[in-house]
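Lab notebook, design round three. We kept the backbone fixed and only want residue identities now. Task for the bench partner: fill in a sequence for the structure below.
Input structure tokens:
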């Protein structure tokens, strides 16, 4: 696990000191070692957190002829198979880790070599002979990668926004559309950021810079494969696929554990880890004084059931005192209420392990969110849109609906509004936090967009269409960004087996009848 940064210029050699400045902002991502290497018009930099091949996992990784160089952030879970294939084709690989495979895979497959990678990653590769820079991000977006073109034509990239803003040539202008999107969705959806001109490379995409020309292309997107199977056959396939995903993520040359909330998802991960491990699994939980949010009892029960070495951290929240830490970690607005707990539990886990598995992704892969059920109900009610609209207007006229936002009348009014919304915009309306009209008044602009404009319409009918919208926007914009930045703020590598692309694709492929039953999801 690492942090990466770099520059490439069509007008001569960039200053290595600028990349050193960027890396200084992300030392937390790789406290063990780092370096900057200059190759004429391109400068590559990295910070490394040692996880695999502790002594020889150096970066950048080079090919035999020394004209292809790669820096890498993440983990490849099937790199040993790749190494065997490359060696069988005559390649000579230095070291025994995953990064060393990258220049050779590029030689075999060109810029789309990322299609061969199974894991979480953000990488940069320089082909000196062609004067070509390749940036690539993993399929789901577990590892962040941002880029910007500076006024002088230089392209800059880094793992975090705080690294890019160290560059003196980067304009520091807030992007108004990002603020509007944040108020609508509680996160800033890609490919934009909160700064004008700074971009997130989307998940499953490759950026190629070649002699000043930039192109961004998709190399992967989920392709659900519905099939005729019995419920028992689906369940067995899910069990096999999730088990394999967990076992892939147990590879490490450093201490490894799990973040355990006591919920379904993290409990399944811990159970499968215990099944595959010869030693007791290390598990970590935080607790809060408010019993509504304290899950320690559930986590303790799971820990006892699977014989884990369990650590708990009682937390007395002083939100005001913690705000500066949150702002530093996340760089741009994020309204996820789990951001602070994730930051705190990562701090606890890092005192004991370097790598942790978590349960993130179960709700996206297997339709666990209430909003999927709510959308299904709204779709039925929306078959009579006029009645829905009239009902919502009548309910809003009642005093309780205006003065008690959490009251049943308010929720009923909101539900009927969603039901009366056209089908293409319904999911966005369901997710919308601040309505478009209110944002227009708040931001003093007519440019405020409806929430669905940031998401697009569902590409498929049923729950699968909603899941695909979340995979494209919510996952990389909120959940995965939160998981990466909160864990890496404490130099902890967090792995999410329930977001393995094979698990995710299988989960979306399940028939709706297995995703929700009545008002129950997952």
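Proposed sequence:
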């Amino acid at each position: 696990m690492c942090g990466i940064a770099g520059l490439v210029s069509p007008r001569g050699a960039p200053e290595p000191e600028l990349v050193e400045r960027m890396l200084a902002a992300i030392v937390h991502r790789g406290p063990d070692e780092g370096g900057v290497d200059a190759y004429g018009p391109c400068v590559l930099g990295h910070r490394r957190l040692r996880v695999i091949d502790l002594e020889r996992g150096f970066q950048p990784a080079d090919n035999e002829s020394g004209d292809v160089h790669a820096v890498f952030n993440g983990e490849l879970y099937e790199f040993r198979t790749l190494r065997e294939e490359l060696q069988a084709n005559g390649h000579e690989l230095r070291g025994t880790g995953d990064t060393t495979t990258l220049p050779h895979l590029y030689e075999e497959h060109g810029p789309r070599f990322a299609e061969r990678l199974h894991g979480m990653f953000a990488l940069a590769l320089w082909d000196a002979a062609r004067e070509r820079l390749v940036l690539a991000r993993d399929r789901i977006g577990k590892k962040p990668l941002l880029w910007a073109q500076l006024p002088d034509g230089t392209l800059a990239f880094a793992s975090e926004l705080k690294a890019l803003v160290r560059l003196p040539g980067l304009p520091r202008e807030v992007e108004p559309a990002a603020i509007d999107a944040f108020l609508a969705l509680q996160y800033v959806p890609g490919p934009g950021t909160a700064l004008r001109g700074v971009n997130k490379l989307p998940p499953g995409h490759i950026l190629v810079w070649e002699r000043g020309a930039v192109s961004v292309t998709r190399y992967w997107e989920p392709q659900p494969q519905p099939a005729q199977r019995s419920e028992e056959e689906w369940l067995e396939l899910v069990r096999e696929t999730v088990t394999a995903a967990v076992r892939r993520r147990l590879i490490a040359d450093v201490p490894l554990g799990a973040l355990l909330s006591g919920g379904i998802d993290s409990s399944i991960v811990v159970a499968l880890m215990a099944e595959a491990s010869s030693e007791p699994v290390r598990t970590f939980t935080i607790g809060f004084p408010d019993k509504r949010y304290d899950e320690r009892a559930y986590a303790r029960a799971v820990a006892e059931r699977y014989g884990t070495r369990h650590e708990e951290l009682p937390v007395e929240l002083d939100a005001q005192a913690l705000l500066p830490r949150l702002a530093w970690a996340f760089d741009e607005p994020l309204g996820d209420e789990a951001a602070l707990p994730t930051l705190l539990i990562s701090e606890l886990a890092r005192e004991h392990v370097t790598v942790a598995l978590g349960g993130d992704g179960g709700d996206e892969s297997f339709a666990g969110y209430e909003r999927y059920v709510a959308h299904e109900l709204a779709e039925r009610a929306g078959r009579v849109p006029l009645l829905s609209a009239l009902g919502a207007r009548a309910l809003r006229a009642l005093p309780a609906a205006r003065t008690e936002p959490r009251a049943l009348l308010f929720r009923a009014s909101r539900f009927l509004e969603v039901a009366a919304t056209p089908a293409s915009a319904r999911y966005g309306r369901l997710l919308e936090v601040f309505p478009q009209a209110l944002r227009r008044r708040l931001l003093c602009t007519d440019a405020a967009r409806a929430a669905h404009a940031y998401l697009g319409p569902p590409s498929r009918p049923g729950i699968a269409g909603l899941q695909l919208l979340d995979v494209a926007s919510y996952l990389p914009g909120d959940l995965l960004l939160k998981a990466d930045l909160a864990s890496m703020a404490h130099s902890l590598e967090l792995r999410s087996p329930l977001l393995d692309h094979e698990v995710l694709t299988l989960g979306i492929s399940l028939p709706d009848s297995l995703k929700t039953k009545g008002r129950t999801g997952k």
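Keep this in mind before ordering anything: The longest helix spans residues 462-488.
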